[in-house]
Amino acid sequence: MKTEVSTQKDIYEVRLAHEDEGKVLAQFIDQHWKKDHVLVTCKDLLDWQYLDRMSGRYNFVIGIERQSQEIHGVLGFIPLSQFDSKIELERLCWMSIWKIQDAARGHKLGRRLLSYLIGILKPDILSTVGASEMTLPIYRAMGFKTGRLSHYFILHPEKSDFCLVSIKNFDQPRNYVESHHANKSLEKASENDIRNSTAECFHAQKNLPRKSPDYLINRYFRHPFYRYQTYMIRDMMRTTGVIVSRVCRHGKERAIRIVDFIGSSTALKGLRNQWMSLLRKNDAEYIDFYNTGIDENDLLSSGFTRRRAGDGIIIPHYFEPFSMENIEIDYMINVPERQTYQIVKGDSDQDRPNLMEGMQS
């Protein structure tokens, strides 16, 4: 695959970053994206998330000013194949950091980086999670779908004094519909369980992208810094779903964040008592779940409440550092009309460390 062809005779060369360009990539991020960004201060994280050793490159499209040989723009991407090499590279590609420095203004370098990525990888699905207000109009002009993740939560049933959340005038729902099913349980899952006991869950995936057991293992079980908790949803003798979560801490308080889900959304029905058990076991204030594409009725019948703008409820998103504020997460995806899709917090680079020093795993 050719990666160093620039289609325009101008001041920029557009290509994929080489494996030996990690340092200059980090310098660009530090100077033009965010000072002391975690991808700058932690090369291990940069490599785990973006380095494709088999191809000898970083998964960044870069725009190099020919005269100075300096990077003037970058577009990071994370293909599904980053975590399962058996998945075809073209299957899905999440975009992440997309930044053009001031010196490149007026040269349409940002659009050229995106066009190059689409042209060289030809992804079946192109998506981004955490799209900025500046990029959303660009995506819409290109005919891509845009939207906002819905935010659902469950509060600890016995707590009355909350430190992490603000729930003024909120009454916990009392009359749940199908909120508990006696035959259902959540069981801690090992790598071996994911490989050998969850085939039905992966086959039940109807929304794009369809993930694999190896993807789940490499993305979550083998994360170099975070420690995730993975559970199988058991219904009698069947495994009908897989939940991936992570415990976040601020001081002595904890929250459980669901970051991924595999299976049909109907598997979530009737799990309210299981969520309550997890909250008690972890002494956590709440469980939350950002997603789109999972049936809302199934989430509500599982005991979740949807947070809505203007309802006066604050369910914080940032823990590194902690910030008592709601965060709305916008997304873009280009799938065919009528094709359903599912996006969760663990997609793209939404669930990664932001502060390495003193991080609790």
Question: What is this entry, summarized?
Answer:
By secondary structure, the chain is α+β, with helices and mostly antiparallel strands. It has ten helices and 16 strands. The strands form two sheets. Strands 1, 2, 3, 4, 5, 6, 7 and 15 form an eight-stranded mixed beta sheet that branches.
Topology:
Blueprint: E1 12-18, H1 22-33, H2 38-41, H3 43-50, E2 51-52, E3 57-65, E4 70-79, E5 92-100, H4 109-121, E6 125-129, H5 136-141, E7 145-148, E8 150-155, E9 184-188, H6 191-196, H7 199-203, H8 213-221, E10 229-235, E11 238-250, E12 253-263, H9 272-282, E13 286-292, H10 296-300, E14 305-307, E15 330-333, E16 343-344
Parallel strand pairs: 5-6, 12-13
Antiparallel strand pairs: 1-3, 2-3, 3-4, 4-5, 6-15, 7-15, 8-13, 8-14, 9-10, 10-11, 11-12, 13-16
Account of the 3D structure:
This protein has 361 residues and is an alpha+beta fold. The chain contains 10 helices and 16 strands. Strands 1, 2, 3, 4, 5, 6, 7 and 15 form an 8-stranded mixed beta sheet that branches. β12 (253-263), α9 and β13 (286-292) form a beta-alpha-beta unit. It is globular. The chain starts with 11 loop residues before the first strand and ends in a 17-residue tail after the last strand.
Task: Kindly name the structural category.
Answer: alpha+beta
Radius of gyration: 21 Å
Main β-sheet: number of strands, strand sense, barrel status? Answer: 8 strands, mixed
Helical residues, percent: 10-25%
Distance between the termini: 39 Å
- List the total number of helices: 10
Strand content: 25-35%
**Gross morphology:** globular
Which stretches are low in confidence, meaning pLDDT under 50 for 5 or more residues running?
1-8
Mean pLDDT: 92
Number of strands: 16
